[in-house]
Specification:
The chain is α+β, with helices and mostly antiparallel strands. The chain contains 8 helices and 4 strands.
Length: 381
């Protein structure tokens, strides 16, 4: 999961959001509401009377915080920081789900491939035994052809299973960058082997990373609305100017210092669109949180039911596999004793193989169901 997350573009985006929030936090620590501005002006009468009158002025303008504006912006920035951190956890959980699906997909394909290998070995043994008995005259030549045909069919199925396993392994490498595929053979030895405390504990929607992201999005929208409320007009500006005037030729320059305050006026045409946008963001965030909580609760309930069903199917397939494998072994002994024809042995062997394949698939399905339950509960691997 860590390898997949480090390769993800979402990880870079999450880091960028955190850095932007940190930069905004640094910005509000400034004593000014915005960067200061420098004013320069110069005028003379050379194109009019040419009496030598000149005037030069240098000024600085410092935007000031409105009452309550700095506190509101600080709270909004803190909400952005909290949301960016929660988004990282939600992103990691999302990639945990991808890794879980890929890992158990490999487990299912590996079980199929291992079973195909075992089937090839068994049918080759049967084919070799039939060939010897045909040569000895105990069986017809048609039985030898049938046994060879079944062995070749098993080899074809083996190649298909191996190709699917290789494809799953390549998908795993693309996702994680790792060449080594996971080994989950012991993760599902029994229905209780992978049962953890997460299955039995009471699920709380609030602890899920997605629910936390939705809740923090609501909090951020409220804080942004507070910023709009505290910023009814553009920030006032403190002005400091130094002026040098020369009344005319031969006269000495006169210097003066001026201090001023520029106060913009807030109007409805400025404030109403900003407030409407903030209220709309809050309404969307509240609706999203409600839908997210409902979805998470439903996902957890469905995942728990799926685990329960998968465990029952696992037990049924296990018993069926044991019974049909025992039946195939009995018919095999009967065939070797010359009491059972080859077609019946092949049918028994095919039934036992199908049961074992179903059991192997169900083992992987049970592991995937448990992984999906942990995913729905918001638990990382």
């Amino acid at each position: 999961m860590e390898a997949a997350w480090q390769r993800a573009a979402q990880a870079r985006e999450a880091e960028g959001q955190t850095q932007r929030a940190a930069a905004e936090r640094l910005a509000i620590s400034s004593p000014w509401a915005a960067p200061p501005a420098l004013e320069l002006s110069y005028r003379d009468d050379r194109w009019q009377t040419s009496a030598g009158r000149r005037e030069a002025e240098v000024g600085l303008a410092w935007p000031l915080w409105l009452p309550g504006q700095r506190t509101a912006r600080g709270a909004a920035v803190n909400a952005d920081v909290d949301l960016s951190q929660a988004a990282v956890q939600a992103g990691r959980l999302h990639f945990a789900g991808l890794v879980r699906e890929a890992a158990w997909g490999i487990a299912a394909q590996k079980a199929e491939a291992d079973l195909a290998d075992a089937q090839v070995r068994s049918l080759q043994d049967i084919s070799e035994d039939v060939r010897r008995r045909v040569k000895a005259g105990d069986l017809a030549h048609a039985d030898g052809l049938a046994a060879q045909s079944e062995a070749l069919a098993a080899q074809s199925a083996q190649l298909t299973a191996r190709q699917r396993l290789n494809a799953s392994a390549m998908q795993w490498t693309t996702l994680t960058g790792l060449a080594l595929v996971p080994d989950l053979a012991q993760a599902n030895a029994s229905p209780d082997a992978a049962a953890g405390s997460s299955d039995s504990r009471e699920f709380s929607v609030e602890t899920h990373p997605d629910a936390r992201v939705a809740a923090l999005a609501v909090e951020r929208a409220r804080k942004r609305l507070d910023v709009v409320t505290a910023t009814r007009r553009d920030p006032p500006e403190l002005l400091l100017r130094i002026r040098q005037e020369t009344p005319g030729r031969g006269e000495s320059a006169q210097n003066s210092i001026g201090v001023g305050l520029r106060i913009p006026l807030g109007t409805a045409s400025r404030n109403q669109p900003l407030q409407a946008a903030a209220l709309s963001e809050l309404d969307v965030a509240l609706t999203t949180k409600q839908r997210t909580d409902e979805r998470l609760a439903a996902d957890a309930a469905m995942a728990q039911a799926a685990v329960h069903t998968a465990e029952q199917q696992w037990e049924a397939d296990r018993q069926r596999s044991v019974l049909l494998r025992e039946r195939a072994a009995l018919i095999d002994r009967s065939f070797k004793a010359g009491e059972t024809p080859l077609p019946e042995l092949l049918r028994a062997f095919a039934a036992a193989t199908q049961a074992e394949a179903s059991f192997a698939r169900q083992q992987a399905a049970l592991g995937l169901a448990r992984a999906r339950l942990q995913q729905s509960l918001g638990i990382l691997p």
